[in-house]
Predict the 3D structure of the following.
Amino acid sequence: MSNTLTRPGRRIILSSVSSDSHTWNLVFLQLLLEENGHEVINLGACVPDDLLVESVRRFPSDAVVISSVNGHGFLDGERMIRALRTDPDTRDVPAVIGGKLGIDGAGDHQRAARLVEAGFDAVFTDATDPSALVSHLAALPAPAARLARTGRP
């Protein structure tokens, strides 16, 4: 059963990294998040860093979820989170990344640690059960925190 009855949904911006043209992962995640009561703004594939930052400014959100399946999640994600954390309007928005972080699969723990160090709140490798993302988002502050932070719904 979905948690919509027990927890208020969050507004989530969903995106891929700039080099990732895959969309099936974004469709899966959007459906999973919506099933769990969240409002999802899906930016789609190949999203440039500046478009992500502008979208987070334009649509105040409770979290940003980045997905990558092309193996460049680490390289693109590290640059993307630095752009998000540098902007005064987006620096405090919780952000997570998941999927295939590198092309060889080895070293994911080191990549994950570096992505957290760069500014992500959580990193989920391609071996992580999707329920971990759902649990992480459910533990975030309620949408009222977004309203207090931004003054906008």
Notes: The beta strands are 11-16, 39-42, 63-68, 95-99, 122-125.
